[in-house]
Amino acid sequence: MTEREPKADIPPTIPETQARIAPADPLAAVEPVPAEAEHVPEPPDVNFAEYYHEARPRTLRHRARVRSTVRRRSVSQDGPASGENPVYVSWLLSQSMLGHADELARQFSGQGSMWQNPYASPGPRHAVETASVWFTAYPISLITASGESFLAALGNEELWQAFETIGIEGVHTGPVKKAGGLSGWQPTPSVDGHFDRISNELDPAFGTEDEFRAMCATATWHGGTIIDDIVPGHTGKGPDFRLAELAYGDYPGIYHMVEIEQSDWGMLPDVPPGKDSANLDAATEEALEKAGYIVGRLQRVIFYREGVKETNWSATGEVTGVDGVVRRWVYLHYFKDGQPSVNWLDPTFAGMRMVIGDALHSLADLGSGALRLDANGFLGVEKAGSGDPGWSEGHPLSEAANHLIASMVRKVGGFTFQELNLTVDDIKVTSEAGADLSYDFINRPAYHHALATSDTEFLRLTLRTALDLGVDPASLVHALQNHDELTYELVHWTAGHTDELFHFRGEDMRGGDLADTIRRDLCDVLTGADAPYNLIFTTNGIACTTATVIAASLGISALDDIGPDDVERIRRVHLLLVMFNAFQPGVFALSGWDLLGMLTLPPDSVSDLLNSGDTRWISRPAHDLMGHRPDAERSSSGMPRGRSLYGSLPDQLTEETSFVRQMQAILAVRKRSGVATARQVDVPDVSHRGLLVMVHLLDDDRTSVTVLNFADEQVDAFVRSEHLAPGATVTDLFSGETVGTVDDLNGFRIGMAPFRATAVVLEPPADDADED
């Protein structure tokens, strides 16, 4: 194999030992520094997986593979779409996820390939070492080259050369398999951005299986990893759900669905014309609970809308089954009515088989190296007594199911991460046996609050809470924007610790009141008349991009008024947020909306999508990473193009002061210093309300300190922590220059410009070094 030449229009990667940020401003242009000035840390102890596969690169460790791709049968469509038509039933079976999963699973039974990897315990640091910087894609928002599919674009050699240059090591594709539902023979569109999966097949709108495999190969060539999705919590109303309605075989066991006796149909609502189900109101939900059919109301009604979704239960219309019996069912859906929930404790274990088959297809057939688990916190439902809501969050069945999924993924050589917005206690419990990594819902709303208020008190509280409760920051995915809203549910404070007292703003405050205060602060600053370009999304959070969070925090009231000076201010704050997320142990993740500095869409440009009340569509503008189609007004999926403040990746990579170039330097220092696998040991008090200090113990036993200024003012910072040894030399990780010495009070001083961040490392006093 010959060595490939880099693309001519992509600057070569700056050697890791030669990249630095100017000492006067760590968030500035990249300059060379002599390699010999850099400290080379001792290699850390290897973990079991590294020892077991010591000679293999991380991306080439043992991975179980299918012996042959399962061929999907082509079945003709003829006759009525009913359970009495065998052709229709056969067609549904040929399309079903459970059927495909059963065929695929047989290839792995009795094979030695299933016993080559450790699988019992999560390995967060192993996952971080595999890929510690992720790009999170959103398929329907990516503008590709003319005639190029989404998957072909993500497998493009030029894009991966750019990613490698920047320091991006993993790509989360987002959901790319068929989603939506079926109405008779006809497909219906997705109701939740392709998170309502109905097939293991890829959606042709995003590309082919061959393109997915080629993308994985290109990623591996560049030392990267592809991260796919599975959805353990629900499906769409596709072939599997329609077969369940027809009472065919094991299929009703996939879902939380209950057959209602015909004598009780009078309790059920009529299904409106053009619909296939009707949501239950609270009174009907209670009546069905008392009649012994369902567990009743649950702890939360996600996406609650009066008259639309008042409970988590819906009733089907009359359906004639394969046995000729006419039935009506009531089914559970935590999310939208088109997302029936999977039952993980049915005697057939059909739901489990279906989900595991989907995971095996992504990992062992398509070639991805990791999976995101969606809606995996709601896998257990249990009836409560004394009129209390049913137990549906933090349930032991969810923990057990997540352990099974994550163990299976580890068993075939991959890793998992979860987006689990539960209490910190529950995240801790799930991290002990479940997914390898968890999305950082703990600190995500808190760092936005610090920016909006120029006060890090709540952010310090969330960081300390995680440490106190034993959540390792290295097990978290610290992210900028993703496909969802800026979540401010603050479940830890509104659910598990509502009545617990927390000291905040000089007084003891109940957890529930604290959450209300934080939400009010965020809404006051980031939405409303002064920031009409950000919209509240139900009770979950705020629809926005990172750039528009910053714009609102800076007092910019109209996006059209943003000029060159404003772009520079937004970019500086954006890099501050990069530093906060990247200079913690764990994964740092960002999206195309971050890379290009995208603004939200005008609501009237997506008015049809907003009709359902889902305001998140304004924060998903189409964007062109590589600048292939500068004149394109929409993505191939129809999303309108948004405004980019920073420009395409090729353009940014030719400009030393661009957002991407400066982030590249930050990530190079992050990788060289080993922050991603360090241990966070302290989040000390600060000398100014806008400051944040995080203290980390690196793998080479040196102490690193990250200092961030969330205030728009110069601060003469005094940094103090019991973990700072008196007499230690304070060295700037970016410039390599000595910036001070730790005094007898375990502290040092450092000047912090507005919205500036820096990181330093402590070298032991000369006497200590001599003793070593």
UniProtKB/TrEMBL annotation:
InterPro entries: GH (IPR017853), Trehalose_synth (IPR012665)
Gene3D superfamilies, per database record: Glycosidases
Bias-annotated ranges (Basic and acidic residues): 621-634
Location of region: Disordered: 1-21, 621-647
Protein name stated in the entry: Trehalose synthase
Species this chain originates from: Pseudonocardia alni (Amycolata alni)
